[in-house]
Amino acid sequence: MFGEFTDRLAGRHLAMVLVEEDPDRLSVLADRLAVVHGELGRPAELSVHTVQGTCAQQLVPALGQAGATGGPVLAYLDSH
Fold this sequence. Notes:
Layout: E1 14-20, H1 23-40, E2 46-52, H2 55-65
Parallel strand pairs: 1-2
């Protein structure tokens, strides 16, 4: 999606934060993102942060570290 609408990101920053408790699942997610970014590219305005742990413990600190607390947050929380 970000490859097709990169003009919408101009002058903005979009942080994607992935929190996963299982380190193997986190590795799979990171690998899948790397493949997609390799195929489609990744806009300079997009930063991706992967954090191992639970959302209850890691989400808010991860959002802060990603600089994503100063504006709207679109969240998808998957409980499996």
